[in-house]
């Protein structure tokens, strides 16, 4: 299977220690999160919490297909991550249009 650029950039973030895992950790962070990525199977209440965190952190939110985060990070049960590296977050955002796995959340029902 050929890896997408987004998967490659997420691997770089993982190796560099620039990822926060889980809704609780994302909610606690007050700064240094440049991109949020959620799995589409995230519960409704957790998604509302994530949207509030997005507004607080003023960063974009991506929604991935079911199992996308677990698959590309090789960790079971990953539903939410925050990218804490600005340049890698920008690189991921530049490749969103090419990817079928993730889409940019713009509010409302995606």
What percent of residues are in strands?
A: 15-25%
Q: Per the principal axes of the C-alpha atoms, what is the gross shape?
A: globular
- Sheet with the most strands, sense and barrel status: 5 strands, mixed
The helix-strand sequence is HEHEHEHEHE
CATH topology: 60s Ribosomal Protein L30, Chain: A
- Tell me the Rg in angstroms: 12 Å
Please give the oligomerization state of what you see. single chain
Q: What's the level 1 CATH class? A: Alpha Beta
Question: What does the average pLDDT come to?
Answer: 92
Which sequence of strands runs across the widest sheet?
1-4-2-3-5
**Could you name the CATH homologous superfamily?**
Ribosomal protein L30/S12
Please explain how this structure is put together.
The protein is of the alpha+beta class. The protein has one domain: 60s Ribosomal Protein L30, Chain: A (2-Layer Sandwich), CATH 3.30.1330. It is built from five helices and five strands, in the order αβαβαβαβαβ. Helix 1 runs antiparallel to helix 5.
Short recap of the structure:
The protein is of the alpha+beta class and about 110 residues long. It contains five helices and five strands; from the N terminus they run αβαβαβαβαβ.
Task: Please write out the topology.
Elements: H1 5-16, E1 19-21, H2 23-28, E2 35-39, H3 44-57, E3 61-64, H4 68-73, E4 80-83, H5 86-94, E5 102-104
Parallel strand pairs: 2-3
Antiparallel strand pairs: 1-4, 2-4, 3-5
Helix pairs in contact: 1-5
